[in-house]
Amino acid sequence: MNKKTRTLGEVFEFAVEKFPDRLALKKGDTEYTYTQLKKRVVYLKNHLLKLGLKKGDKFAVFGENRPEWAIGYLAIVRAGLVVVPVDRMLSQAEILHILRNSEAKGVIASENYIDKIEDVKPELSDFKHVILMDTIKDMEVAKEVPVGDIDPDSLAVLIFTSGTTGTSKAVMLSHNNIISNLECVDKIIEINEKDTLVSIIPMHHTFESTAGFILPLFKGAAIYYPASLKPKDLVATMKEANVSCLIAVPLLFEKFLAAVHRKVDAASIPKKIMFNAISSIGSVFKFLRKPLFAKVRYEMGLGNLRVACAGGAALTEKVARGLKLFAIPIIQGYGLTETAPAISVSPLEKPKIASVGIVLPSIEVKIHKPEKDGIGEIIVRGPNIMLGYYKNQAATDEVIKDGWLYTGDLGHLDEDGYLYISGRKKSLIVTQSGKNIYPEELEEKLIKSQWVKEVLVVPRIDAKTKKESVCALIFPDYELLEEYSISSETTLKKEDVEVIFKDVVREVNAELPAYKKITQFEVREEEFPKTTTQKIKRHMFLERGIKV
Fold it and tell me: What is the pTM of this model?
């Protein structure tokens, strides 16, 4: 990391010096070189200060992924203000809650979502300024408005996160929290000025903000933004960018594999035979995977892909192995918004599929109160640990103790220093005999079935006996069931589907000790509600009875 880079508003300065005319940001016909990026950031910074905003004031950014979102974020922090990234998909009540509780003075907003801002604006007394993203392109405020020194340890970003727990808290991250995390990630994942990325995860999310936005700009890479996340637009942008680094949630990689297999299923019999033959060869001779599946990768816009990183949710072993078969160099990382966000990342040269990688330099990880199997709560210490929760000292004291952040995640470290996640402390099921059951372990086994698209394992408490049993909530792959119904020329009734999943559960149970066995299951007709990064909102299913 450049020694001159002390605050977030300066992260792109190194690239401006070294690669002034290199492309930085692009969406459709709108593009910015590094020189143009700096010009727009400085003009917007000057404009914000001319509005009378003072150092430490909060200012929101709101909209879809696009270059002006990035410029808005950088200008806000360069002005010494605190940026409040807001999820564009939130409800009116949630947006109001964030803008009110953050005490935001205004927002840089996309024209596509301005109605949501106008709806809540009358209820916000201190909310005075609305800057449309399209106006950033032509803004001319060349007269420099001085900022003064910005303390690297001061609050830079305020992120409201509910995640999968349903409780909204605002995480306070300093300039140094994020910059120190960049330094750590930069030592494990090499990104340089020749790289191109396609921005997929919403930019308000800390994983995308740090790894898919700020880090590439520091390194002089180019970031492309697709017109939408529809497969056609996404593939077109990947081909245009000749993408070399891809950062995405596991769901995107899962959809990639599903798309490949749909194409194969629709192909002629000779092509199917050829694909299966190639797959068999690739599974045995790993060095042949890259040439054998070159055409598949090219058609998906991944012909030049050097590294793919999954984050924001757990990558299943089934998806990881599927990607490796197609010679897609997949790694995964682990972290929290509270850790700015990365804690561990898989080394590209030696990843372990079941692991979330090795702990990053300058960060310490310990397993708190491990059980006999070595599993305990993951606690973290380092310069990336948040300042705390905004105006919530009680919640801060609950998770930060003696400098250690208690993540609430359960896991263990192996002898090589690789970290493994077992599940969430709050979702742990404890049997009457005192044995621990990790729902995520059972979910990983169930999801291997071709018939299971999504699954949650939750406890069910019998109203009379008060005994706790293990239940699986299953959302089937209905497309696959329909294909099976057509090919077998039979109409699958509800009872037939139940039989299929009884067999799936029976096969999984056969591998498990008695206390872990799944005793009941429910087949769902709808997908599970999820967070922005496609994590299932588990809390919604722990707080109600289960229909079986």
Answer: 0.81
